[in-house]
Amino acid sequence: MSGSHSIHACCLPWQHAILQMFAMLDPALLSRAQLRRTLRQARRQLSPCEQRRAARNLYRQLAQHPVFRRARHIALYLPNDGEIDPQLLLRAAQRRGKATYLPVLNAWPRTKMVFQRIHPTDKLRANRFGIPEPSANPALQRKVWALDLILLPLVGFDSEGGRLGMGGGFYDRSLAYRARRKNCHKPTLLGLAHECQQVKRLAVASWDVPLNATVTDRKWY
């Protein structure tokens, strides 16, 4: 398995065997829905020990990188459904005085997502998918093109910048302007993932927004 995890005392060997089954899947053999189910299952198989280790390693990959250090306005996410956890990066950004943002789903239209500034003491509530988010406040929201860096969750990725999301299209709709503004390079888009979420090559849909890179707990792609 490319980039496979080492087996540690607190991690069960059978979990690694399952992850090896999912490594470097050939997406041509599966529909998008099937690929999502398979990759979501792979990341859910990670133990709490492996999730904590992955979060620490992700932090080490990014915290001192120039892309993260130079960014002043950074959007992140709170993990759900086995996603790799970026909260160490969220807290690091806040300690350094950066403005941090979380995605907030609109009540209407329900297909729209905005980015709202978050502070360490803000209270969060579960949205319709059960993911914590701040109560909507337009005064704290920032246009997506005015962000410096977005750290995106994903279900699957390839080494060419392809990203497979959960299927709701929220990030793709929010970033659709990039297809119209060819010279617009903001924000930098970094997908965050576990190594077991990599596939050989993702089919690109017309609405897919390519990533600048994907960062896992092991390396940059």
UniProtKB/TrEMBL annotation:
Annotated InterPro entries: FTHF_cligase (IPR002698), FTHF_cligase-like_sf (IPR024185), NagB/RpiA_transferase-like (IPR037171)
Reaction catalysed by this enzyme: (6S)-5-formyl-5,6,7,8-tetrahydrofolate + ATP = (6R)-5,10-methenyltetrahydrofolate + ADP + phosphate
Entry EC number(s): 6.3.3.2
Requisite cofactors: Mg(2+)
SUPFAM superfamilies: NagB/RpiA/CoA transferase-like (SSF100950)
Residue numbers binding ATP: R32, A33, Q34, L35, R36, R163, L164, G165, M166, G167, G168, G169, F170, Y171
Coiled-coil features, chain-numbered ranges: none
Superkingdom in the source lineage: Bacteria
Family indicated by similarity: Belongs to the 5-formyltetrahydrofolate cyclo-ligase family.
Protein's name according to its UniProt entry: 5-formyltetrahydrofolate cyclo-ligase
Organism: Pseudomonas segetis
